[in-house]
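1st attempt posting a full record on here, be nice pls
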Amino acid sequence: MRRRDLLLGTSATLAVGAVTRVTQAQPLSWHIQRGVNLWPWFSLTREFPAPRRDYDWPPFQTQRPVPTKQDLQRLKAAGFDFVRLPIDPGPFVAFTGERRRQLIATLSAAVSDILSAGLTLVLNVQTNEATHYWNSRVLTASRSAAEFPAYLKLIGDVAEMLAAFPSDRVALEPVNEPPQACGAPEWVAVQRALLTTARTRAPNLTLVATGSCGSMVSGLTALDPRPFEVLAPIIYTFHFYEPYLFSHQGAPWMGEPVYRALNDVPWPGDAGSLEKTLAAVRKRMRSDDRPQDSKAAAYAETEKVLKVYFDAAPARPFVDSYLQQVADWGRHYGIAPSRILMGEFGALRSDHRYVASGARDRARYIEDVRKSAESFGFPWAFWNLFDGMGIVTDDVSRRFDAPILQALGVQAP
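the predicted structure (as tokens):
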């Protein structure tokens, strides 16, 4: 299961052996604070249907929003100091020869554009779970996964490409939201292999490690970081979307039936009422094309979970309690807060595509999560520049959402 399909994580005791030192550990030489994700620059592909496993050329959809050099400069002017760039590994492992070299060259050019804008980069290899073949099942589920050797080679090649750039301006995050259970030893083995390969090819490159069960807080706190410390410079990352009833209300990609019609959930929880939100859900369900019995079951479940939500009335202390777990984990292992990146957070907005959170509620939630992370000393990367969770209000004008920029503590350029 993916992180966005999980509502709860479980911790497990983890015992792993030491790793072989592949190079002299290097100190962390970079500093980041406020960032934004740049999906889908190297995502949204043109794959052929099964049983084929290849992609059209060029492999990325031409109509997807891609940041321009001016967009990158505007992010820097607004007050962001780094970006996190997700790339879909599918095309990079499916193509070989000259086309593979062209893809790496195009990615290298994007890195150059990012750095030229004055931004630091975290490059994240982000598997597309919606694809019929090149997903985590065949790439990173285990060391024996069918395409793990190809994925391992890709990580080495990307690390070597990044090694050509200033070591204080780039970092590599080899996997996004690993699906293994919290504390799973197999994830430790997979991550160790990937990071060791990257370190061998790029001795000074900053690497990014994460916990399993979708990079949630519970995944990071179940991770013993000591086997990875010999691979320094290294930082650690987690994602934060709790409570999902707020951040993912109205998200059609969520598997649980409550999310599709869920809307008008307030933040903080006491800013609205159960009755008002349920009325909004009923209105939304009237236009839902699901069978009536499915809608009835979904509404009954929605009523139940929303009662829990409003009884709990989550607010800033709720966020603080989650991030305190991360701070305690870092303190236990002697990892400075500046080495713990909140790599994703955000909430779906209501617009012409989605019926989700209200604009003021969304801004309040984003501000609370951002301020909580900063209070613990964690750098953060907002999800996202584009799409329904983005800063850009539409892909044509590229206008920034001023209240969201304010919630993030930056300003319109």
